[in-house]
From TrEMBL:
It comes from the Bacteria. InterPro entries: Glyas_Bleomycin-R_OHBP_Dase, Glyas_Fos-R_dOase_dom, VOC_core. Residues 1-126 form the VOC domain. PROSITE patterns: VOC. This is VOC family protein. It comes from Dyella koreensis.
Length: 129
């Protein structure tokens, strides 16, 4: 249903480094960057897999930020654990350690962190392993 989503960040350079580290355990990389010279107003960084950026951050140090929730698919529970470790090492705040969340469904395994702007970032695996 969704092609891509964008999140405003107050410190573009910090957030670009943060998401590069945090999304690596999930197999995502920085795919594309569109600079202020091209857009005329702000820089954007697109992360994704297989050459397709689907998660974008945009520099917006002036506009008020409204915190949002984004959940990334993890291929395994081990990837959820690695995401959580990488996020904490990159400066995230723990918002729910890796573990089962059976109130969603029997195989829901996730971890939650708050990014530098307070966005609730989740990695979730729907597999029993």
């Amino acid at each position: 249903m969704l092609d891509h989503i964008g999140v405003r960040v107050s410190d573009y350079a910090l957030s670009k480094v943060f998401y590069t580290k945090v999304l690596a355990p999930l197999g995502a990389t920085l795919i594309m960057e569109v600079t202020v010279e091209v857009t005329g107003d702000r820089s954007h960084a697109g992360f994704g897999t297989e050459g397709k950026p689907c998660f974008w951050i945009s520099a917006d140090p002036i506009a008020p930020l409204s915190n949002m929730h984004v959940a990334f698919v993890a291929p395994t529970r081990a990837a959820v654990n690695a995401f959580h470790r990488a996020a904490l090492a990159a400066g995230a705040t723990d918002n729910g350690p890796p573990g089962p969340r059976p109130h969603y469904h029997a195989n829901y395994y996730a971890a939650f962190v708050l990014d530098p702007d307070g966005h609730n970032i989740e990695a979730v695996c729907h597999s029993p392993e």
